[in-house]
Amino acid sequence: MKNFSYIIILSILFISCKEKTENKVVTTPVTVQTETPKVTQINAFKGQQVTGVSVSNEGRIFINFPRWRKGVKNSVAEITNNTNTAFPNEDWNSWEIGNKIEANKFVGVQSVVVYNQLIYVLDTRSALFQEVLDAPRIFVFNINTKELEHTYILNEDAYHPNSYINDLRLDKKNNKIYFTDSGNSGLVILDLKTEKFTRVLDNHSSTAAEVDFLTFENKTWTNSVNSDGIALDTKNNKLYYHALSGYSLFSIPTKALTLEDEKEIEKAVTFEAKTSAPDGMIFDENGNLYFADLEHNKIMCRKPDGNIHTLIEGDGIKWADTFSIYNGYLYFTNSRINEVTADISNMEFTVNKIALAN
Question: Is the peptide bond before 88 cis (omega within 30 degrees of 0)?
């Protein structure tokens, strides 16, 4: 009898929803988080502020540590058996602040992205958040042989002296790589065929910071960070991006990024939604967009229909910085940027993962 009543209630709800739809009185669907995923810590680093993480098709985990201070042991590393192993070797990671710049040594690595058997290492060529020491570049290594396969160096008109080229997304469909610049707001596009870099939306309202501070438990983190998070929707051929110091998510069709007229590119920009202030962002294969709510220790999920819900929140989330997806898990780093004042020698920074719903 209880089951019969339940069926009747469902039928009434279905009929009611159908009538409203036919009369065009349609409400926004509500997404319900049915189960809170558990945070699993992969590794922890005391006194070493990890920001980037990327997982290969075979489950190998690569990470990076930006040179925001002296004492960075490795710019790029692979996590093997709970250890932090320099990648591709110690020599590439041996540069120190004050040393002469060398072509084949990392200076200030901000992001690593693994695609198939290659790892793309984004070197800002900036240390201590100061002006670039030479042109930002992308080193491409084979993760198996550890050999350098290629180096892409930004041409002078693609960056500014105060640029901080922050993150990247590969678009193999269009043979492009897209980058955000969080130092001087804008997007940068690399044509992999011509190896030419193009800068667009330079100092545009969609790439610029909206606020000059964020709030964490009534404490103010004063900073103005421009275009930072970037994510590629390969199904709909759209690039999404977001200023870190801001609450607006924007997108642009990838075909618009091939236009030569800057005004036409600007017209193609779409405001998508008001969101929390995030750092990194990533799409899964189902079109879900994951990003952080930095101010509230959360990771959010935006569904393809536009609904946004909390995926996870709590003390296990401390400035969720960069995301990578592998085998049904969302990997992320806790970079704790808002908590850093000066000395970080006793602080612990972590790489973690959580299971995603099927």
Answer: yes
